[in-house]
Amino acid sequence: MPAIVVIGGQWGDEGKGRVVDFHSQYCSVIARYSAGNNAGHTIINERGKFALHLVPAGIFRSDKTCVIGNGVVIDPAKLLDEIDMLTSRGVSISNLLISQHAHVIMPWHPIIDRAEETLKGDLAIGTTGTGTGPAFHDKVARIGIRMADLLDGDSFRWKLKNTLEYKNKVLTSLYGLPPLEYQPILDTYLAYGEKLRPYVTDTLTFVQEADARGEMILLEGAQGVLLDLDTGTYPYVTSSVPASVAAGGAIGIGLGPTSISRVVGVYKSYQTRVGNGPMPTEITSGGDMEMLREGLGGAAGTAEYGTTTGRARRVGWFDSVLAKYTARSNGVTSVALTRLDSLSAFESIKICVAYEIGDQRVTTLPATLTDAARAKPIYEELPGWQQDVTHVRHLADLPPEARQYVHRIQDLMGVPVDMISVGPERHQAIVTRDIFGGAIQS
Ligand code: IMP
Ligand code: MG
Q1: What fold characterizes domain 103-199?
Q2: Which is deepest, 16, 52, 98, 294, by most CB within 10 Å?
Q3: Residue ranges of the domains in the chain?
Q4: Contact 419, 337 (CB under 8 A)
């Protein structure tokens, strides 16, 4: 019966990891359904701080099964590094399953990722350079290599030989780069296959049977839905197919859409973006930018630098036009608002409620990049609370100004805010409604 999807409602890095970590206690299966190791989740629990890129954030609960679904692209070296990191820190991964249908990031993918960005010049996206985009291009072009291929020597030899001939033509003729050698890739990837063999299986059937038994399945989105190919800020998006949008959850794990009963949208209390592309509420200089980027005023250690690439994230005020749009296009039933603590030092806080484009007031996503670049945010300004909130666990104990801020976001989005995070630790959260049960706090 019921699957729940947790998505990032903005451009990624909203704090999905901690929200997944929280809800996973009620679920028996936790599954990643899209993207690759371009994604990065930070999770802090009693064992310490962990940066995960491929393994689902449910891995810390040993009684749950964690699945890397068919919709994910896997860099085997990166996955093995992550597995080693987890096991060396005492986290068991015996509960991990990997889809035999997941596509593999091959050595040419990161090379092409970077070469393509250079070739694009002013059209460059600012990708993570992980090869994720090119691996999805190959999936769609129907020349991808899947996990099952790595486990079958004959199939892999044949596929690699033919694919590499093609890719070497691309590398040498289009990008002017040296060709790659067949034998080392063959040996390395067959060895990866052997190491990952214990985990690779038919996850489609596994998840479908869990669903048929009525078990709760948590589908863990990656990145943010504004990076979606179809409904995001194209072309400054990621190439994931299926997308990380809520609907992609069904495809990327092999369930039907009717299995999804709830969608949790994770939204940062302000906004960040890494990579290029429009961001109407961006603050590009000055004290407010510093305050948001360095996380001044919030819990320690919450500065805005990428988990995957270490890049400084672009920062800006909460954009309710985009938030309402993503809530609707993903069927969000419950909002988790993260990093409220990071706003604690501001005297006043802005929320974008519309854009001015030329002489028009607009409350929808601009259709073209030219319009997006011209969109001037129209702000509502709310008073700040200017006090520490990292210890607060009940809505009633938040300063009135902070409650007003949360309620305003809820009203603008038209979806209840059920969880508010006030610090990166597992316990630093206010849960106002148990999405599996009912009211906790009003
Ligand atoms: P790609 O996914 O590496 O192709 O990058 C495409 C765009 O998505 C770039 O703007 C990246 O910065 C952005 N992106 C990809 N993964 C993440 C993520 O996990 N968090 C935030 N941005 C991401
Ligand atoms: Mg991230």
Answers
A1: Adenylosuccinate Synthetase, subunit A; domain 2 (1.10.300)
A2: 16
A3: 3-90+202-431, 103-199
A4: yes
pTM over 0.85: yes
Q: From the candidates 21, 23, 41, 103, which is the catalytic residue?
A: 41
Tokens standing for residue 419 = 């969880």
User: Residue 210 C-alpha to ligand 1 middle, in angstroms?
Assistant: 31
Distance CA 10, CA 319 (A): 9
Helix H segments across 197-227?
203-212
CATH fold group of domain 3-90+202-431: Adenylosuccinate Synthetase; Chain A, domain 3 (3.90.170)
Mean pLDDT of the chain: 95
41 is catalytic: yes
Task: Say whether 13 is catalytic.
Answer: yes
In this structure, what token pair is assigned to residue 86? Answer: 């987890």
Pocket of ligand 1 (CB under 6 A): 11-13, 38-40, 125-128, 130, 132-133, 223, 227, 236, 238-239, 274-275
Per-residue pLDDT tens digits for 193-215: 999 999 999 999 999 999 999 99
pLDDT value at residue 178: 98
For residue 398, pLDDT over 80 is answered with yes
